[in-house]
Amino acid sequence: GAVVSQHPSRVICKSGTSVKIECRSLDFQATTMFWYRQFPKQSLMLMATSNEGSKATYEQGVEKDKFLINHASLTLSTLTVTSAHPEDSSFYICSARDGDFAPLHFGNGTRLTVT
Amino acid sequence: RKEVEQDPGPFNVPEGATVAFNCTYSNSASQSFFWYRQDCRKEPKLLMSVYSSGNEDGRFTAQLNRASQYISLLIRDSKLSDSATYLCVVNGAKKGGSYIPTFGRGTSLIVHP
Known about the structure:
Chain A is mostly beta strands. Chain A has strands at residues 4-7, 10-13, 19-25, 32-38, 45-51, 57-58, 67-73, 76-81, 90-97, 105-106, 110-114. In chain A, strands 2, 4, 5, 6, 9, 10 and 11 form a seven-stranded mixed beta sheet that branches. The termini of chain B are far apart.
């Protein structure tokens, strides 16, 4: 089955630092990747949609200068949380698909804790 | 009306029970439909796609009713390991050139001995 690898799985950083999260599709080419955030006991919240070679489309309320997304190839997208603050602590999950109506395949998620 | 609606539950059922979840969607142009399960503090995992003719995978049966704009998931002979949150996903709203999958809030299932 389709595999999406996400790293790191867990990161603890100090306030003001930046954190980069990688998302790779291992056995398929991902036409589109999505980045989500999930707070405890809440639903997945879509942050942005990323297509290879083009700028990401951010959801309302998500700061594009704070959450930098780069989709350099059909198998790799990165999310950089810049100048992280404690309120950015959350579970970040990427997903990828290989067609407009194909199912999403999720990475294992990254649990970010900002101290 | 929310784009994708699910009863949050929780559904609390004994082992061996049959349980059904429904999900309604508002965009009649939606093209593809899926059920995912999410365990606590884990990523969602694809359970099954939902096809117009209905489809079955072991103890799980999914159905789509386009006229009424709902999809369903039936779980037979529930196991303790079925305890999770079940997410309905509907793909059809286009934004910025991409079709965006829309998630329901999820239905919590608790299977007890």
